[in-house]
Amino acid sequence: MAGFQEYDAYDGLGLAELVRAGQVSSRELVEECIARIERVNPKINGVVRPLYDRARAQSNEALGQGPFAGVPFLVKDLIQCIPGVPTEMGSVFWKGWTPRTATNLYKRWREAGVIPVAKTATSELGLLPVVETDLCGATRNPWNLGRTSGGSSGGSGASVAAGVAPMGSAGDGGGSIRIPAACCGVFGHKPSRARNPVGPTASEHWSGFVSEHVVSRSVRDSAAMLDATHGPDATAPYFAAPIEGTFLGATESDPSPLRIAFHSEPAFPSTVHPDCREAVEDAARLCEELGHRVEEVSPGHDPGALSRALVVVFGSNIAAEIQEAEKIVGRRATPTDFQLTTWISHMVGKAVSAQDFLVALRSLQAEARRLARVYRDYDLVLTPTLGAPPIEIGALDPQGVDAIVQKLFAATGWSAPLSNPKLIDRAAETTFSFVPFTPIANITGQPAMSVPLFWNAEELPIGVMFAGRPPDETVMFSLAAQLERARPWKDRHPPVYAK
């Protein structure tokens, strides 16, 4: 069956309108998506598991009344489970593991009407801000194949940017929606903590830092999908406060004049690239032109203390995940089952005490309370999304002495030195230098979004990030849509593009 050549001219809601009007069939859209995957995936490696036969069958079934009925969709291969389809989480250890039951957020995506056509690449267990795994290889940026697409949702980011589908699922525990959105020049919104359901097999992920949603080409697709999925499930221990109106409705009119704080002061150890600073200043000027009041502030972060605490919290969660994975998979994990960085993080988690973990978590919670006071007079905070333009593939690989020492620790199981603050600082500097801004919203639980407003001299997208007051995503969607109207990005396509 032929595809639909005008696929690019519509976002997800637009395609669904055509399906409802009988102007195109869901099967035609699915065939177009499949053809586009086959065209660009050999270059970008964003899709790791085709679901073509399932998608064709679902497209031929009676479609429901969801806002995206019949529209192709991509599902990140982490956390969200499709019964009968392997969920491998970017990890050799999980290779071939096949869940029997669906996760609740996946069910809500399906109720919204989307047709999952493929699963997309993730970093191993969602840990790194790049997707370069032993299981599936590197996912490349369609704007420059030598650069990262970001992580951990890099497969969805790269594929959406390359024109494969209007939306792909993404999860964000330290920036993993916003990082690939910034790297790939698409829109990425991280909802407020507990806005979307987490069950039925978990109550929260990574101590409540993880929020899941989508990356998309249009703001209104992101808003409409959140309308379709938000709200607690039956086992939720807590949930975000209800909103007035709808997220999609918020995109349909400009916000009242907002008070926006902005800065380029990193929360974690980093030297921020001039392109990222320029992007923020450009966005600040644009917001002023649109009638908003914009003021530069200094948040007063302690990057060293924040990075040490976050390494402990992330490491402890990775250690717990691997211990739980051993029970599910039915065998003990070894250093050869995981990438070096993942295994070292797991060893850090095992080396620190329960007291260390709680002290670290409480220090991050204290920072969230402090920042609430710093920003109490502002509606939104504007910063760079990243500390640098998309970095080269392999840039975060351990090098030289660091690589030798980490491999020695992994091979011998000698974990005691890993609780040393100096070693933790050294590990944190490498990872957080690229992502010194995004984790703050995971710590605070704020909604945050990366908006593609700026491209540098190399024609690489440089995202800017807005963080809002929890749980007020409506103001953010209203501003994002206003920015999209003022400086549209939908027709700005990378060199590697599926059409």
List keywords for this structure.
globular, eight-stranded mixed beta sheet, 499 residues, Amidase signature (AS) enzymes, alpha+beta, 16 helices
Account of the protein in words:
The structure is a single chain. By secondary structure, the chain is of the alpha+beta class. It folds into 2 domains: 9-299 and 436-486, Alpha-Beta Complex (Amidase signature (AS) enzymes); 303-374 and 397-432, no CATH class. It has 16 helices and 15 strands. It has helices at residues 12-20, 26-44, 52-59, 104-111, 154-161, 178-184, 219-229, 247-250, 274-289, 303-329, 340-351, 354-374, 400-412, 421-432, 439-444, 473-486, and strands spanning 47-50, 72-76, 115-120, 132-133, 137-138, 140-141, 144-148, 167-172, 187-190, 211-216, 259-262, 293-296, 380-384, 448-455, 461-468. Helix 10 packs across helix 12 and helix 11 (340-351) crosses helix 13 (400-412). The chain is globular and about 65 Å long. The model has no long low-confidence stretch (mean pLDDT 95).
Note the topology.
Blueprint lengths: L11 H9 L5 H19 L2 E4 L1 H8 L12 E5 L27 H8 L3 E6 L11 E2 L3 E2 L1 E2 L2 E5 L5 H8 L5 E6 L5 H7 L2 E4 L20 E6 L2 H11 L17 H4 L8 E4 L11 H16 L3 E4 L6 H27 L10 H12 L2 H21 L5 E5 L15 H13 L8 H12 L6 H6 L3 E8 L5 E8 L4 H14 L13
Parallel strand pairs: 2-3, 11-12, 11-13
Antiparallel strand pairs: 1-3, 4-5, 6-7, 8-10, 9-10, 9-14, 13-15, 14-15
CATH topology of the largest domain: Amidase signature (AS) enzymes
Main sheet overview:
8 strands, mixed
Mean residue pLDDT: 95
* The CATH architecture of the largest domain: Alpha-Beta Complex
CATH superfamily of the largest domain: Amidase signature (AS) domain
User: Which class best fits the helix and strand makeup?
Assistant: alpha+beta
Shape: globular
Task: Return Rg in Å.
Answer: 21 Å
Percent strand equals: 5-15%
